[in-house]
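Incident log, structure service

09:12 report received: a user says their structure output differs between two submissions of the same chain.
09:20 pulled the input from the user's history:
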Amino acid sequence: MNEFTISIMMGNDAMRTPADVAKQLRHVASELEDGFESGTIRDDNGNNVGHFATSEYEFFDVDEGNEK
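09:34 re-ran on a clean worker, output below:
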């Protein structure tokens, strides 16, 4: 099974508003369309504010101990 994760830290001068986050989400979407499976998210000032990644994992049902 595949998983996609994204993390964006807010609070600095260039990453405060929902519009700032939306802009970076559009950038991540563009990176994914270009074939990138992971990457660093930077604000308009070039600061590292997060990352995104796709990965494969096996899901196990904890109660049953069976792979799903």
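09:41 both user submissions now match this output. Likely a transient worker issue. Closing.
09:42 reviewer note: The chain has one domain: 2-67. The CA atoms of residues 3 and 55 lie 5 Å apart.
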